[in-house]
Design brief:
The protein has helices at 27-39, 55-61, 80-100, 130-133, 140-156, 165-175, 199-203, 224-233, 252-256, 262-266, 276-285, 300-307, 320-323, 336-348, 353-363, 368-384; strands at residues 9-14, 44-50, 67-70, 105-108, 121-126, 159-162, 182-184, 211-215, 241-245, 268-272, 288-291, 312-315, 329-331. By secondary structure, the chain is α/β, with parallel strands linked by helices.
């Protein structure tokens, strides 16, 4: 690939937020797949902007071709003046890096543009604009911060990449961003899982095909409480266990308080964060996927469940019908009775050849090579201007 008269395209990617605890959600694996795809090209140099805390994790998951530059984002004293001084110091450092590597693109896969990088094209990924639709899910300071962040993206980014048509529509509408500068590139997930660690089944006392899986960090929009209420309602018609994975942020007891019947409590497994190999095993051996999220910019678990040919019951809102297919059971995530029907659907449904074909047709949109090539084309187009 020839990069517009240059021998090499230099891209700094801000991965400060990536860590092994899963706090970043599904975007963690999207980002690592994309970086590895870009780094596989001989004429693209990737510089990962990270911290000393996540350096080891990144080295485990990213290509040896990636160059790592650590930034110190720790502020020893939590005073406004100290935080401001640290922000200025880091901004100067990032601009020095941009100059050192003759940077063409400064890429922000988490949306947030933390630095004002001079003479460099800034590209930001838009994951969702949930705060515009559910402001009640955010603390006042966080809500103000998110609105300011997105306004800054709309003002600063030369191009934005939206992870679904729904995300593009809502971002451009709410922030008056030029649709011509917004691209839709779907997240690739096919290459995520290579090894399965089935020891997790014994660890959690799970039998194959005898549990429903919900992989989601315990954020308000993920709708765990309604799911648990619906699970308790379905107890008479459903003997399956319910397995919750993801970072629970210390809310395990709060979640379990949603379930009053002791028998149902015993069938509710709050596994918390699991690694990739364990998640592979849980997906491979589950009865099906329940996904009652109230807001999604994409919905990676739905795609992963299609890949494993599992029955899927999923919210009928935001991007999810776009990302899924007609062989998925859709329900209103605000209605516990409908979520209950979703659980019953998983318990009673066996995946047919027609469903597998439908899944396969949908999965062609989430190819790793195509995702990488789409980003490269976007970067090339930007440098031509």
């Amino acid at each position: 690939m020839t990069i517009i008269g240059r021998k090499q395209m230099n891209i700094i990617i801000d991965v400060v937020a990536l860590d092994r605890d899963g706090r970043a959600g599904g975007v963690t694996w999207f980002t690592t797949e994309l970086i590895n795809g870009l780094a596989a090209h001989n004429n693209i140099r990737i510089i990962a902007l990270c911290t000393h805390k996540n350096l080891e994790f990144l080295k485990e998951h990213l290509s040896k071709n990636v160059v790592f530059e650590c930034i110190d984002n720790e502020c020893k004293r939590n005073l406004i003046t100290h935080r401001l001084a640290k922000k200025i110091e880091n901004n100067i450092y990032v601009n020095k890096l941009a100059k050192k590597y003759h940077t063409d693109i400064f890429f922000c896969p988490f949306g947030v543009i933390n630095y004002k990088v001079r003479k460099t094209n800034v590209v930001s990924v838009i994951l969702d604009v949930q705060h515009e639709f559910y402001p009640e899910f955010f603390a006042k300071k966080e809500l103000i911060a998110r609105k300011l962040i997105y306004k800054y993206i709309a003002h600063t980014a030369k191009r934005v990449v939206c992870i679904s048509e729904y995300t593009k529509d809502t971002f451009c509408e709410r922030y008056k961003y030029d649709r011509a500068h917004a691209d839709v590139i779907y997240i690739a997930v096919q290459e995520r899982f290579e090894d399965c660690d089935e020891r997790i089944l014994n660890k959690l006392s799970l039998d194959k095909n005898q549990y429903v899986l919900y992989p989601a960090n315990c954020w308000a929009h993920k709708n765990h409480e309604r799911l648990l209420h619906a699970f308790e309602k379905s107890a008479d018609n459903n003997s399956l266990k319910l397995v919750l994975t993801g970072n629970m942020f210390g809310k395990e007891e709060q979640l379990m308080s949603c379930v009053s019947e002791e028998g149902v409590r015993k069938r509710t497994v709050v596994a918390g964060y699991v690694d990739e190999a364990e998640m592979c095993a849980l997906l491979k051996n589950c009865r099906g996927l329940i996904f009652p999220s109230m807001f999604e910019g994409f919905g990676i678990p739905v795609v992963e469940a299609m890949q494993h040919y599992k029955p899927i019951a999923c919210s009928n809102t935001t991007s999810l019908p776009e990302i899924g297919c007609s062989s998925i059971f859709y329900f209103n995530p605000k209605d516990e009775n409908e979520i209950e029907k979703g659980l019953e659907y998983i318990a009673k449904t066996n995946v047919t050849e027609k469903m597998k074909k439908d899944y396969d047709n949908s999965l062609t949109r989430y190819n790793g090579q195509e995702m990488t090539e789409s980003y490269i084309k976007l970067f090339q187009d930007l440098l031509r201007r």
